[in-house]
Amino acid sequence: MLVDAARRGDAARAGDTARTGDTARTGDTARTGDTARTGDTARTGDAVESTFHGERAVVLQWGHLQATVLPEVGANLVSFRDLARGFMFLHEPGADEMDDFRQKPYLYGIPVLFPPNRYDGGTFTYAGKRVQLPVNEAETGTHLHGFLYDTAWDVKDSGNNRGESYVVLSVAVDEAHPLYAQWPFCFTVELRYGLNEFGLSQRISVRNDGDDLMPCLIGFHTAFNAPFTEHAGAGREGAEPGGAERRGSAEAYRCRISIGDRWELDDRGLPTGAKLPLTAYEQALRDEGAYPFATPMDNHYTALTRGGYNRMELWDMRSDVTLVYDVGPRFRQWMLWNHSGQPGFFCAEPQVNVVNAPNLMRGPDAGDAANLVDSVNVVDAPRAVNDWKAGLAADEIGLIPVRPGEVWEAHSRLYARDGGLN
Predict the structure, then answer these.
(1) Which domain holds residue 316?
(2) How far is CA 122 from the centre of its chain?
């Protein structure tokens, strides 16, 4: 449960003025920026209700680590900080950027994409149901990034125990929900974040509450600062709005990511179904690491698990600290977007499915294939779907069915370690 500062007498001992609990007083005095002054640490874990530049927030703290999630803006984990080092790992909005954040929350923090990326005409058919999402990118005639990144989520639980601080958020869609008209499936998505000395853990679960198969099309548009101190000072007393202080340089950063092949995209950003060999620069991104802003990127890749890991690593060579984003084996595709090569932040986006996956079906539509899956044994499902395809297996494009009552789940972790790209 959310912790009220008035109920925790041990959280306000003399001298502990920078502890999260001390800022969780009634009203607007517990802004996340006020709790994140460089060097402030908490002796124990905390999970407190607060605000972030006027938005309702839940703040997790464990030692010198702090994470902030905004339930009413898509359950976006908008901030992950190392207070002792003054690092702001995620691209988070300053006070003067909140209007931009509310218009484009997928450029900040860790927004949930359901479904992720682009869909031709915003439409496809699955399990006999026609999905019609709004065309929100007029220049490409596509729907972009789904509908959960700006939807209000419920705080199901939060608190701290001997092992971590945590928050559990959920959103449920049934036939009475406004989103059902766009996505005619009944489902619940649950998102859990935990914070401890091992970093930030994330668990995402999708449960099919309906009577028909539902596609599990999900990803994250995770936005990383490079340098980590891009907005150092944001929200602190006496700092300029938007966090004008800047320490370090993006040129001192190297990124390595477990990518395999590159999907060919047409001029609308939709896959053609063909795969391209990696360029020399992309091979460096995969192997030894490379400067993440060397060339503009809005690229789509398969994931290549190496040594048991599927992850993005971002090395600050000056501090000799590496941020690790380990997304696990269930996210089998990546998008890389770097703001047209402008230094400051970039997005490493793990996805379950290929962009526009249901529309990559040829012959019978995805609905027919899904109905076929429903009639065969689970073991045979990928092969059965592939019988309808022209060269691309359903498993390859991530067109994963969730049966009625079933739960699909994935785990990720974000943490920093000393040292470079080993």
Answers:
(1) 27-422
(2) 21
Q: What are phi and psi of 54, to 5 degrees?
A: 95, -10
pLDDT in tens, 215-262: 999 999 999 999 998 544 333 333 333 333 344 689 999 999 999 999
Residue 345 belongs to some domain of the structure: yes
**Contact between 231 and 242 (Cβ < 8 Å):** yes
The per-residue pLDDT for range 380-395, each reduced to its tens digit, is 333 333 333 334 678 8
The pTM of the full predicted model, rounded to 2 decimals, is 0.83
pLDDT at position 374, please?
38
Compute, in degrees rounded to 10, the torsion defined by CA atoms 25, 31, 37, 43: 40
Specify whether the CB–CB gap between 105 and 112 falls below 8 A: no
Mean pLDDT of 74-94: 97
Count of domains in the chain?
1
418 assigned to some structural domain: yes
The answer to whether 213 and 401 are in contact (CB under 8 A) is: yes
What is the C-alpha to C-alpha distance for residues 214 and 209, in angstroms, rounded to an integer?
A: 10
Query: How far apart, in whole angstroms, are the C-alpha atoms of residue 394 and residue 377?
Result: 15
